[in-house]
Amino acid sequence: MMPAEFETPKYAQIEKERRFLVDRCPDLSQHDYRAIEDLYVTGSRLRARAITFSDARPPEFKFCKKYPSDSTTSQPIVNIYLTAEEYELLSQLPGNRVRKRRYRREFEGMVYSIDVFEGALSGLILSEVEAGSGETLMALAPPPWSCLEITDDAFFRGGTLAGIGAVELQAKISSLRR
Length: 178
Fold this sequence. Notes:
Elements: E1 13-22, E2 34-41, E3 46-53, E4 60-66, E5 74-81, H1 84-90, E6 95-107, E7 110-117, E8 125-130, H2 134-139, E9 146-149, H3 158-161, H4 166-176
Antiparallel strand pairs: 1-5, 1-8, 1-9, 2-3, 2-6, 3-4, 4-5, 6-7, 7-8
């Protein structure tokens, strides 16, 4: 349900996903990945994303907005694909950056992404899964590499992670393992 002051934009898609903290990461050394750099633009819900593929495909660039939602599993999202020049222009906006490698693994017929973070967030590994319906999403079993579902924890959203350092991250993870 959207707050009254927000309407789902005409071209938005509803993203239905669950997220998990990973503690037993599967061996990813032989898997292709996407190197992702996100810029979370200060004072907004906007994100500029650059994606570089390990299999040498051409890079992709996106500008994204996630809209507020009362649901932690379903959120309206709009993506605009950009040229390299458009991305370069938008990447100059003020904000915080996050770098990660995204791998894809299957579990029980569903594709899960595994995000291995870099930089100040090094050591953090998250997994997420998307589904076409809320019922399907909620029926999914957590993947065997996860230790805790964090879908409802705003700390682990990209915009929040972009603004924290290693000390805050370690304190949060330590608090979850108590």
